[in-house]
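Marked as duplicate of an earlier ticket. Keeping the data here for the record.
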Amino acid sequence: MKYYLIAGEASGDLHASHLMRALKERDTEAHFRYYGGDMMQSQGGTLVQHYRDLAYMGFIPVLMHLRTIMQGMKRCKQDIVEWQPDVLILVDYPGFNLKIAKALSHSPLLPRHFQTIYYISPKIWAWKEHRIKDIKRYIDRVYSILPFEVDFFEGKHNYPIDYVGNPTVDEVRAFQTSHPADADAFRQKNNLDNRPVIALLPGSRRQELKDNLTRMLEAAQPFASEYQIVVAGAPGIEEEYYHQWTGNTKDKTTKNDGFTVLYEQTYTLLQHATAALVTSGTATLETALFNVPQVVCYYMKCGRIVNMIRPYFLKCPFISLVNLVANSEIVPELVAADMNVPNVRTHLKSILPGGERRQRMLDGYQLMAQRLGAPGAPDHAAEFILKRITNA
């Protein structure tokens, strides 16, 4: 079979690469062509364009690079028609992917059995719910990685989907299996002492770091005598950007003013953390799967105004995947005006050993894990995809 995949960011690249691996295990004649990244490229096939060449977010960046984006979209459509795949697999990235799906829908230039599948659905339950119309019109099947999406799509919009499990469960489990916790080795490698660790995961984009990290550090500082404060460094962010807060050094592992920055060790950091301050996103789910109590922090400018208008734009009760999966407030969410140093400090104290919220949060993680289910998301998705295109 011929599989064409489109992933538009790092997380999509990772999840798509695991799906490609699962497809290869089941289809010895699998051929891949894709818009994606390094992780997908490691699985073989042909990388047509790297996602970093089209990864623009926000109104102004998109407007400034609109010509590049449109050229990439045109090239993608032409390439799919020329290659004649059996299936197109879209991975999140809805602004781009739904336009591709619309352009190719019912095209006489593609094989009659051609299928368009979404693996990792757009988060239309949070915003832009109108996209359900395009999904119904142009997508043959959605394979979901979030269990609550089934009720949203099927119950609210009468559109059947399949929940295949969550790939983050697979990724964390695989790491834990291949990297048994070794506190001594972790401390020695990173020049840490014997104090327990508070992990800070302030995001991966520059604006996130600028807004979140300074407040996280200030909130955590009173605990620095008993705990080591360790920041997860983001890939692609040069050291100098962190040095605005950590001092100047040529080392990728830096220790200044009572805290440390580690690169390319986020899972290892969570494996050895006692508590964490985390921005929203997949990181909240990863932190919970490592059983680390956390406070979700996301600063926004004009915070009071954001909090006032949030219900009109955000169509879900929570922002963290932990709470969304559990359908209850397992972890505190400090967003916009609520993300301030006193609030963060108070909530952090409550989840440290002896804190009143710590055990209740750990119990809530068990509920979340049960709802996510066992590992195997890429394998389940691969089986569904093969069955569908074989019977098409």
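See parent ticket for discussion. The longest strand covers residues 2-7.
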